Amino acid sequence: MNATVAHPASHRRILFASLVGTSVEFYDFYIYATAAALVFPSLFFPAQDPAVRQLLSYASFSVAFFARPLGGLVFGHFGDRLGRKSTLVASLMLMGISTMLIAFLPTYAMIGWVAPALLCLMRFGQGLGLGGEWGGASLLAVENAPPGWANRYGSFPPLGAPVGFIFANGFFLVLGAVMPDDQFRDWGWRLPFLASGLLVGLGLWVRLRLTETPAFVEAAEAGPPPRVPIGELLRTQLLPTLAGTIGTVACFALFYIATVFVIGYGTKDLGYNRETFLGAEMVAILFMAAGILTAGAWADRTSATAILMRGCLLTVPVAAAMAWMVTADALPMLFVWLAAALFVMGLVYGPLGAWLPSLFPARVRYTGVSVTFNIGGIIGGGLTPLIAETLVKRGGLLWVGGYLAAAALLSFAGLWFVRRRAAA
Description:
mainly alpha, Growth Hormone, Chain: A, 21 helices, 84% helix, globular, membrane, transmembrane
């Protein structure tokens, strides 16, 4: 899976391309997540009860997770048959167009039920694009990695998550600081979606200058590509696909509880100021970036599986501390919990960039990585804000922590299976 070492400039370009693409994609994804927590409930969903509006907004957020496996299948199919480069360009364009169009959507007060329907349609387009993005960016990095550097190279696409989050929440934070709440609700929230066009242009400029990965070229020279990559994947790689899917659940559950759910819960239920809370999240997300980089370096010294398993185990005490530390009028303690949760998130997320590609042969690798990552996203993240919102209303944060701990132990089981199978 490792390629011959190229000129250092080429490697810098490859790593930047894998990082900038996922940063743009995650920026698009997170501006929707932030808007779904802060403004979409009142603008697009007409229920009288604020809690119901919030639930409906989170339900629209989950639409993308159900689109992502379909995007993974489509882009994985063409990525394994036609190549990584053209597929990555197409996924970025789809994500960017869907995001920009949200900036021009009328609200429920303007056109009624058509407004949330169009919002969900654009969210579906975002999910399709991201479904093909993460797997392709991981292959771009890992299939060009020098020997012994696969996990460090593979950590660059996951690093796009905190970078995108910082830009997304930073944009909302600046808007909240420079305009009144009524202007922000009326039109200010549209600006981050409109700005996506500039970022997509940057990503396309970088990616159009790339060449194909050595692993894809070697696979193409060895024989014709699979006619139906998903069919070959399920026929020959079913157990790695199942184990890989389960192994990704913890990272999604941890991230979307520590960001989307906690933003909504902290500002609406605990009464924290929106700008103050977004600022705390932006600083805490730096710990996630540190966790990703740390995990990549550790994984090259030991193994990706070992680091992921340790991250899953550390998620359990983080989950247990949630009900005690996420409270009103205790922002420093809440920040400590956020920082710890997001650092552990880096441990269960960073190594996935190299671990998932290692499970599959090159001829079906794009499909395998995309399917496992995105189905894991449905299980671990798609309904997580909605489930957490329901659980906290019925049993408090203790139930939310129990849900998170269960997700971590499920991923640990998938990782243990892979480790045992490799040792057999």
